[in-house]
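Worked Example 4.2. Read the sequence first, then its structure tokens.
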Amino acid sequence: MANISTAGVDPTKMGVGRAIAVLTSGGDAQGMNAAVRATVRVGLYTGAKVFFVHEGYQGLVDGGDHIRPATWESVSMMLQLGGTVIGSARCKDFQTREGRLKAASNLVKLGVTNLCVIGGDGSLTGANIFRTEWSDLLKDLISKGKITKEEAKTSSHLNIVGMVGSIDNDFCGTDMTIGTDSALHRIIEVVDSITTTAQSHQRAFILEVMGRHCGYLALVTALACGADWVFIPEMPPDDGWEDHLCRRLTETRKAGSRLNVIIVAEGAINKAGKPITCDQLKDLVTKRLGYDTRATILGHVQRGGTPSAFDRVLGSRMGVEAVMALLEATPETPACVVSLSGNQAVRLPLMECVQVTKDVTVAMNEGRFDDAVKLRGRSFENNWNTYKLLAHVRPPETKSNINVAILNVGAPCAGMNAAVRAAVRIGIIQGHNMLAVHDGFEGLALEKIEPITWNIVGEWTGKGGSELGTKRVLPGKYMEEISLNIAKYNIHALVIIGGFEAFSGALEMVQGRGKYEELCIPMVIIPATVSNNLPGSDFSIGADTALNTITSTCDRIKQSAAGTKRRVFIIETMGGYCGYLATMAGLSAGADAAYIYEEKFGIRDLERNVEHLTEKMKTTVKRGLILRNENCSSNYTTDFIFNLYSEEGKGVFDCRKNVLGHMQQGGTPTPFDRNFATKMGAKAVLWLTEKLKECYRHGRIFANTPDSACVLGMRKRGLVLQPLAELKEETDFEHRIPKNQWWLKLRPIMKILAKYKISLDTSEHTLMEHVINVSHERNILDMP
């Protein structure tokens, strides 16, 4: 959350008398517009003047009409557009001192001393050079008579804040750069499409993805689609890889798969530093194995299209943080980058990030590939380690004689199958026997239990819903049968994947341990529900997919009003009593209000919202969007709100309503949900393996300590396991939500971006963090 440094400062006066310019530079990336929109609107909210710089640094040098005042309305309807609306250009002029002199003169004349740059590492380095030269540039301009001493005095130093916009995710210190998630969406759409045709013809497909010298896109794609092999620049394959690759492809086919997928990063190299290309691989597979092979180079498709929900929220949050960082900066503050770590906004010294990014290149050039992977950050390393674990095809010779059962509980959601696949495969690699339980706890009671193998889960990563079958039934009434079946099938551990029923069902199982000794086995719960309402985790599997469904539906609904008279849409979202989907969709679709149970509202609030919309409709803005969580109020129903807005808006706007319903639970999982689920499934079984060793006594497993039944979740910056007993205290069972929810802090951002004059949270302050000493210690579960 963006924060105000000094308590007592009115955030709406912070920027009075200041001017901010925003520009996008370098390669475009989806989500840049969200960042521009947030920078403009929050800048105006603080009372600052805001300027667009069109065509990147070229516009800064050329000045004139390229630098224009930005208004509230000028960024309306920008959120869902890909690319950058204000244009970007590669600029040679700015690399010369002469060019930078012109740029400085243009800014001084407009009184701009705050520059927000959205771009890659090159663009941000350029901004830093500009800042360090600033006082010298002003001296030159005075001596040449281009500016007066008074003008120079009022613009004595330049503040710079960067946001990293790049699909490559190659900037060290940031978990996710703006555009990366959207690029993954494009890639996974293609992989899913190619998979169906490849299976029809039993083909091998080689896909080249972008990323320059960074293998992030290739690596996450390989994880998210279960590719047979991935080539990334950070970790070239060992010599003799050709034989190994052919062996792996053959083994996959022998195991019954009808296709092979190989992912290649565009910068992929071998140990000698020579490029590994699509064509080279195609020749190898065709000549050695005789497989029908096709190569596809994705190219600029990856940069295009509408930004994903994640990139819109990321861009919006970064825009808010950037304005705050600019307005709080002093001449002593180093130029900084605003970024997300886990789900926390952080500020990092720009040049430290650039230095670590350069160190990666140096390490790769010197053949220190392990160092290169480490320098990329913990999230990259986690991805690489998970990929390596899952890439094994041969199970170990020695079995552990451990039986692990996996079940899905509650409503189905996208990503459940990816978690099951990872858990099954990691279990097999650990030497365990894996058992599938169909239809949740009921299936555990009714003996719907069977072995599940490596090949059965092969194609599951991209499948929506639950292949195992899932039910909301709780185990309470079946304890007797469940404990008998645990004994009968000799089950030593349970992986329970699901929503609130998984959590409360597991609690019932733990309470039953006193009566039934068979229940004294380790259990791990993996949160998977569109509602994102489980304690112990900031995110649950399936929520990202639902959020993207809601966002793209809102886009279409808003578009349906294009060209008609003024119209307001009221849209009802799922989530039970949890307002996560309504709030995050409000941020990513640009809603005027989102009504949720956690933030009480009454008739006065509704009245204010209607008046606010009426005022907004008097400007050039012609559309309004209101989101309502399904259980936000038993009396202020969707129909009530629709009727109220219809009546009060008479003559100004008309209303339409939509209840989105079960489409929010369906669909194929997003890249985030596939990757998140894969890591969660893998981590859960690795934890169980360790826990089983601890609980092994006198030839049998006995687990009855609180920490033998845990929820695996993502908290702030890492994956953590928390005992159910502890989480019980943090839960509101009546409304099935955690008592504290991190995302409530984002609600003020949504309101400010919708032009409400409310105050920002001043309690938590985002301080500058260092990258150099942090990059080796953090445990970040990467997003996605």
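Now turn to a second chain, presented in exactly the same format:
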Amino acid sequence: MAAALVGGAALGAAFGELLKAVVKARNRALMFNTILKRMESTLKSIIPVIKEIEELNKVLDRPKQEMGQIMEQIKKGEELVLECSGIHWLACWKRPKYAGKLIKLEKSLKSFFEIVMQAQQARDGKETLLEVKDLRMDLKRLDLNVKTSRAHNVNGYIAPLVLPEPLINPIGLEVPLRELKMELFNDKVSMVVLSAPPGCGKTTLAKLLCHDKEVKEHLQRLFQHKGYEVPQSQTDEHLVYHLEQFLKSLAPSAILLILDDIWPESDSLLDKFNFQIPNYKILVTSRSSLRRFGSSYKLKPLNDKDAMTVFCNSAFLQDKSSNIDEDVVKKIVKGCKGFPLALKVVGRSLCGEPEEIWKRKEMELSKHGTIFEDDELINCLQSSLDALDNKIIVKECFMDLCSFPEDQRIPATALIDMWAELYELDEDGVHAIANLHELSNRNLIDLCVARKDASGYYNKHLVMQHDLLRELAIRQSSLESFEKTKRLIIEIRANNVPDWCMEQKQPSVGGRLLSISTDEKFSSNWCNIQAPEVEVLVLNCRTKTYSLPDFLGKMKKLKVLIVTKYGFFPTEIRNFPFLGTISNLKRIRLEKVSIPSFGFTSVQFKNLHKITLVLCNIGQAFSSTSTIQVSDALPNLVEINIDYSNDLVELPVGLCQLVQLGKLSITNCHKLVALPKEIGNLINLEIVRFSGCIELAELPSTIGSLHKLKILDISECSEIRKLPEQIRDLQNLRKLHMIGCSNKIELPPSILELEHLKEVICDEEIANLWEPFVDQLENLEIKVDKEDINLNWLYNVGF
């Protein structure tokens, strides 16, 4: 085996087999998808270079024994990956053990990748690095970064060339630097966008790249062309032309052009700088991900250890010992949320101050949770928010995210409900999701998609807002007067309500959005809040029992109610029927709530249009009472969504009275085994989803009565072994989702009567079953799903 390594064939084949195992495992072992995806990317970068193994061996100079050890590790890695692919996704207790092993394997591959890249770069020759700064000022000033002490002549213009100052103690950037180099060294990548919120260290990382030892070893010249004043008569096109000529003059050396701090409004500059020059690459730093320009690398905040180091470097004099209590320091560092700028600003403000000043800062952070006292920090973050001034709705959507607790993932479906009423966005959520994508592109949020749903259902879209950006939104809202604020955020610890709630002449809340968060010690002892204009109420609770506030009855304009229980066990709402007193309520979303028997039938919900229940105990909530039928209690309900119900075994027959229903989604209810035949009474249904109901055994024949049905989703209903003959009666059916269905499912011949069926979305095995029908259904297209799947959804089920 060692002898074969000299030619590289065996080594390349071994990596090829490992890649095949990783790709296979990604399609099966969903719980390890994120790790395997990164590993797949690394392997795809390594293998092309392995083909040039002779060059590699010249640089590595590996003895045969060591190369044999590499082969052995690759083989063990392949066995580990294949073993992981056989683990069922429900066996989640095995994840930590195998995830740790996979991460070790991934680190080994990345280490080997660096060695491979050294070999490749030694062959490719030297690179030239250019950095261009502050290009968002429409090229009135051109800053190009260059290394040498001489002057450079570009078409008659003489400019001094200087070296950027070396960086000191770039804490916490070692891993990002290594990963960024991997992106840049990829032959298939011509442009990399390094993105992060303001104050995270994007420019610092770019400068660190300039002084990296490995980079320098492969550079012929590292230089900075800075502060070059261009005559005002020059047009943008003229400047771009001269820059292109300058870069071409550097050939045949490879060129890396760094464009620092590019804003979305100026992204057209990237098109202008995308010159057709061999061995030419661009690194862009931006607060936005600028997705249309290819590869993107997101820089994350610092971990706790590195955050502490950065803070201490700014807060303590090197030649003096500190008598500041360690716990005080830890709490202050935690309050800076891992942002390097915040850590440095707060550290500098406390440097040399007496212990009492430190303790005051710690108490302020503990009480108010904010560090927004320094102008440098405020201006840095505020500029990202100000950039949304011309997109008012997107900005308001960003501000609304602070309605949910810190460090919690926000379901996109909750935001869709809020924004449909607050800003009159579409009911299906298209505009809401588009706004979230824009905020994500600007690094103002993280948008996690566990799985894209082509049917337009967004229950797998989750939003995370960084703590510091959440504080920015809260601070911005607090600058508005109480009566004129658009949103009011209240956090109650134990039973300590805000002072203004206890005033005799209590001010009236003028905003349309009210959010109230309570903790584990809250006893539901509500104060009276005057909120006549509120249209959306968000209640975040943590107690096992909970009472709705009495002032709900006075909120005549309330249209959306969102109640979320945080923690493992669901909460019981003691006064649930009180919801029936809210006359204009249109949407109810409950998460981790035990709904009492007859909860939705003991009173009338006259204007309720939509119910969403996530991780709720349903019980007899939809059973008719002796005096009120389900159809009378919910006369205008047009949409119901039940996701991850803990106790739903059979769809309540009472729901089949709601003939006005247009959308019915019963998803991820793992105990659901049967649907009542009365489901055929729901003749106005246009969308039906049963995805993820893994025990559902069959679709009743009466489903053929749903003549208006356009979308049917039975993805991952693996126990359904036959579609009913009556499916032929669904003449308006346009989309059928069958991802993850049993490959033994029987498709009846009556399917040929579905003349208007346009799409079947499924995996490869199901696609093969449809092949005999494709030629006879001329409008039909089989779409094989290859979307990425990950475990972002597991936050819902307590993992």
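Notes for the reader: The chain has a mean pLDDT of 78. Residues 8-87+97-117 form one domain.
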